[in-house]
C-alpha cells in the first residue's frame, strides 16, 4: 500500500496547484491521525485523504461535462450546488484512473463535501479531516472543532455541518439537500446526547 500512496503523491503533485496539493497531503495526514485515534484502517484513511480532491483541478463546468460524458447521473440539487461535484466525479476518477477498488475508500471520497446521514467511520474521518487540517484558516470555530475531532467525532461533525450551513445560508448560497439531511441526522445525535 505504501508504494501506491507514494506513487499517487507524485502523480497528484503534477496535477494539483501547490496550495491544493499541500491541502491534500495535510488532509491525508490528518485522516491518518484520526484513524489512529478511532481505530480505523490507516491505509484506507491515508489513501482516501490523498484522493479526496483528485478532481478539484477541474472547473465546475468541466466536471459537469465530464460527468455527462461518463454517464454519471447528476441530480438537479447537485447542478445547483456544483461546488460539491468534485467529490462525486473524484470517486469515479479514483476508481477508473487510479484503480482504487475499495468501496469504503470510494464512498469516503464521494461524501467528503456534503456528508450524509449515518456516515461510516472512514467517511466521518475524511469529512472531518478535510475541514480541520492545519492548512485551513478561514473556517469559523476551528479552535473549537479541531480538538473536538479527537474527543467526540460525531459532535465535531455536527459542529462542522452547523458552521457550514450558517456560512452558506449567510451568503445566500444554494445548499445541497444531502448537507441538510446530514445536519439533521447529526443534530439529532447531538440533542439525544444532551437529553433534549
From TrEMBL:
Keywords: Hydrolase, Iron, Metal-binding, Nucleotide-binding. Its EC number is 3.6.1.41. GO terms for molecular function: bis(5'-nucleosyl)-tetraphosphatase (symmetrical) activity. Residues 20-135 form the HD domain. InterPro entries: Diverse_Catalytic_Enzymes, HD/PDEase_dom, HD_domain, HDIG_dom, YqeK. Pfam families: HD. It catalyses: P(1),P(4)-bis(5'-adenosyl) tetraphosphate + H2O = 2 ADP + 2 H(+). It comes from the Bacteria. This is bis(5'-nucleosyl)-tetraphosphatase (symmetrical).
Amino acid at each position: 500500500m505504501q508504494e501506491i500512496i507514494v506513487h499517487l503523491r507524485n502523480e497528484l503533485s503534477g496535477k494539483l496547484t501547490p496550495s491544493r496539493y499541500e491541502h491534500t497531503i495535510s488532509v491525508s495526514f490528518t485522516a491518518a491521525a484520526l484513524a489512529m485515534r478511532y481505530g480505523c484502517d490507516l491505509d484506507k484513511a491515508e489513501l482516501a485523504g490523498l484522493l479526496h480532491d483528485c478532481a478539484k483541478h477541474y472547473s465546475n463546468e468541466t466536471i459537469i461535462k465530464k460527468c455527462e460524458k461518463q454517464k454519471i447521473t447528476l441530480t438537479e440539487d447537485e447542478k445547483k450546488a456544483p461546488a460539491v461535484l468534485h467529490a462525486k466525479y473524484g470517486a469515479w476518477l479514483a476508481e477508473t484512473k487510479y484503480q482504487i477498488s475499495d468501496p469504503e475508500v470510494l464512498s469516503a471520497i464521494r461524501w467528503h463535501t456534503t456528508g450524509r446521514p449515518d456516515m461510516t467511520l472512514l467517511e466521518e474521518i475524511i469529512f472531518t479531516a478535510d475541514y480541520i487540517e492545519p492548512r485551513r484558516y478561514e473556517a469559523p470555530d476551528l479552535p473549537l472543532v479541531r480538538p473536538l475531532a479527537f474527543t467526540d467525532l460525531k459532535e465535531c461533525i455536527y459542529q462542522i455541518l452547523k458552521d457550514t450551513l450558517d456560512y452558506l445560508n449567510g451568503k445566500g448560497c444554494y445548499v445541497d439537500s444531502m448537507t441538510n439531511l446530514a445536519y439533521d441526522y447529526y443534530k439529532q445525535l447531538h440533542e439525544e446526547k444532551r437529553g433534549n
